[in-house]
Specification:
The chain is an alpha+beta fold. Strands 1, 2, 5, 6, 7, 8, 9, 10 and 11 form a nine-stranded mixed sheet that branches. Strands 12, 13, 14, 15, 16, 17, 24, 25 and 28 form a nine-stranded mixed sheet that branches. It is about 25% helix and about 20% strand. α1 links the parallel β1 and β2. α2 runs antiparallel to α4. It has 15 helices and 32 strands. Bound molecules: guanosine-5'-diphosphate, 2-phosphoglycolic acid (PGA) and manganese (II) ion (2 copies).
Length: about 625
């Protein structure tokens, strides 16, 4: 069974190809389709060409089904409301399936439950999926989406073929990646990442099609790195269903990256031009819903600065022949958090989503607009709001959220007013600083710099943040999220650390400086730092450090700004700098002890010695405070 992963290309599959022609496809693609169609039994097959005509057809069908409705206040904007049980990534149901467990999960004591990924053997997963996929597309259309992560033809780029029974996924993938005929032409007869997705709800004669078909109880998202294959069942939510994004560009991507000596990271990429006209690019890793999209699109409050956006979620980076780190954004769109987005916080995002955008789980207004918590209140009195749950006449102060906290917009990147001129460069842009950050209500200063690359890797490894609505968690709990990659590691985190550390040894490489930021420290009255456009003040300090300016002083955790060296000119609100940079001894003693426990219990014998040394040095500095 599944010997060479192909049920032989002489199928008893009887469904008909509605759109496109199987015989026009590369042999390997055709084989993959036949194989999976035989298993999933769709009624029809649709081979996506990526044209606007096709998009309009699918939007029309989705509207007819009731899956989406138009937001008539804007041009070509749509609202989808999911099943309330299908609103976020499901980390507990996401697996990496390798023959050896230690390829996926760090080697720890037997009784430790890993928080660094879920492993299952490929044969056990095969068994499990045998109870999911056979017949799962009955009564539905199987769409074939050829997609490229990265500009078509760039040496950075990777091609996948996603089969899905969701038209919502097709119209979203068309925004988030490059899809269609040109991808197939570029692929030729090469191999590709095989991606299979089903909402897991066949249409039977007794049961009518749902508005948002899904199967939360049976949901599973499986990655087979050894077969270059991804299978996702039961969820239509973006992070689980747009397989080019988290599944391919991060989980499978990180595995390819290690093998080929590059990086696939959960990072935004931004350009910063200072008033003297000098421009640099930075990459920054923050966990989901911790400010990547906002930072990449920020409108700087300091005069003379310009910020441009290359990408807001994923960076593929590699050192070039001159030892310079270069990065591309493998995506073509933004899948951004809606709540909190406003003209005040993120005007560039507001302009990006005015047209050709698909909204999911936001509230709507009776004049055909969108609405969510944190949007500027306009003419509130006479406009009725319908909540994401469909509650009409939603009222402020009703105790419920108008939009789901993880509601999203899905918009083409080229509509973003501050999109960088090189955002589609096939060479990538030069990265001169790497920034880590998370939501840390306590103890972590606004910004600090690592002493060197190895210490910077330690900072990435030590990253923690409050949980958010981007995954299935309830409540706000500070948890470990190393490199903001915890949900996205495709392989053993200990091996990942060794991979990062291995670049320090090579003197020919120009390893960028590494920083840590925290916009989310709290005082008695909430956030201590105004954030958003004011974050430029921190980026300016980082910029000057990269240029070699002597504006830093030593602290136990790293270099921090010399007092007075952060540009605070024109800041309208009062900011308590002492509180933002204070290093409470009790907090930090508890922090290093907890880090030690975490590394020992979760990374175990796979923890590189260099990280142990960094931890011990930090411990010494803290206990000498
Ligand atoms: P991403 O998921 O990492 O891309 O995060 P987003 O940029 O979408 O932001 C997630 C949430 O954090 C939104 O509700 C934002 O309004 C909020 N946020 C982003 N940047 C800041 C900031 O600098 N300060 C504060 N207080 N909130 C922020
Ligand atoms: P985010 O992307 O990082 O912008 O939240 C989606 C996710 O990580 O689930
Ligand atoms: Mn993300
Ligand atoms: Mn984002």
């Amino acid at each position: 069974k599944l010997k060479d992963n192909c049920y032989a290309c002489a199928p008893d599959y009887t469904g008909s190809v509605l759109y496109g022609n199987l015989n026009d496809l590369p042999e390997k693609v055709k084989c993959f389709i036949q194989d999976k169609a035989k298993q999933c039994q769709p009624e029809y097959i649709h081979i996506c060409d990526g044209t606007e005509k096709e998009r309009d057809l699918l939007l029309y069908l989705l509207q007819k089904d009731g899956t989406i409705k138009p937001l008539n206040k804007y041009e070509n904007c749509w609202l989808a409301r999911t099943d309330p049980d299908d609103v976020a990534r499901v980390e507990s149901k996401t697996f990496i399936c390798t023959t050896n467990k230690t390829d996926t999960i760090p080697n720890t004591k037997d009784d430790v439950v890993s928080t660094l990924g879920n492993w299952m053997s490929p044969s056990d997963m095969d068994c499990l999926l045998e109870s999911r996929f056979p017949g799962c597309m009955k009564g539905r259309t199987m769409f074939v989406i050829p997609f490229s992560m990265g500009p078509i033809g760039s040496k950075f780029s990777k091609i996948g073929i996603q089969l899905t029974d969701s038209a919502y996924v097709v119209v979203s993938m068309r925004i988030m990646s490059r899809i269609g005929t040109s991808v197939l032409e570029s692929l030729g007869n090469d191999d590709f990442i095989k991606c299979l997705h089903s909402v897991g709800k066949p249409v039977t004669s007794v049961q009518k099609a749902d508005r948002w078909p899904c199967n939360p109880k049976q949901t599973v998202i499986a990655h087979y790195p050894e077969r270059h294959e991804i299978c996702s069942f039961g969820s239509g939510y973006g992070g689980n269903s747009l397989l080019g994004k988290k599944c391919m560009a991060l989980r499978i991507g990180s595995i390819l990256a290690r093998k080929e000596r590059w990086f696939a990271e959960h990072m935004l990429i931004m350009g910063i031009e200072n008033p003297a006209g000098v421009k640099k690019y930075f990459a920054a890793a923050f966990p989901s819903a911790c400010g990547k999209t906002n930072l990449a699109m920020m409108e700087p409050s300091l005069p003379g600065y310009k910020v441009t956006c290359v990408g807001d979620d994923i960076a593929w980076m590699r050192f070039d022949e001159n030892g310079q780190l270069r990065a591309i954004n493998p995506e073509a769109g933004f899948f951004g958090v809606a709540p909190g987005t406003s003209k005040k916080t993120n005007p560039n995002a507001m302009k990006t989503i005015e047209k050709n955008t698909i909204f999911t789980n936001v509230a709507s207004t009776d004049d055909g607009g969108f609405y969510w918590q944190g949007l500027d209140k306009t003419n509130q009195d006479n406009i009725q709001i319908t909540s994401w749950m469909g509650i009409k006449n939603w009222q402020h102060g009703s105790g419920t959220d108008p939009a789901h906290p993880n509601s999203r917009f899905c918009a083409p990147a080229n509509q973003c007013p501050n999109i960088d001129e090189n955002w589609e460069s096939s060479e990538g842009v030069s990265i001169e600083a790497i920034i880590f950050g998370g939501r840390r209500p306590e103890g972590l200063p606004l910004v600090f710099e690592s002493f060197d690359w190895t210490h910077g890797v330690f900072l990435g490894a030590s990253l923690k943040s409050e949980t958010t609505a981007a995954a299935e968690y309830k409540g706000k709990l500070v948890v470990h999220d190393p490199f903001a990659m915890r949900p996205f590691f495709g392989y053993n985190f200990g091996h990942y650390l060794k991979h990062w550390l291995s670049f320090q040894a090579n003197r020919k490489l120009n390893c960028p400086k590494i920083f840590h930021v925290n916009w989310f420290r709290k005082g008695p009255e909430g956030f201590l730092w105004p954030g958003f456009g004011e974050n430029i003040r921190v980026l300016d300090w980082i910029f000057r450090r990269v240029q070699g300016e002597d504006c830093h002083v030593m602290s136990p955790v790293g270099y921090i700004p010399r007092p007075g060296s952060l540009n605070m000119a024109g800041l309208k609100q009062e900011v308590d700098m002492n509180a933002l940079f204070e290093l409470p001894v009790q907090f930090w003693r508890a922090e290093v002890d907890e880090l030690e426990h975490y590394f020992n219990s979760q990374v175990g014998s796979d923890l590189p010695d260099k990280i142990k040394q960094e931890l011990n040095q930090l411990k010494q500095r803290i206990y000498n405070m």
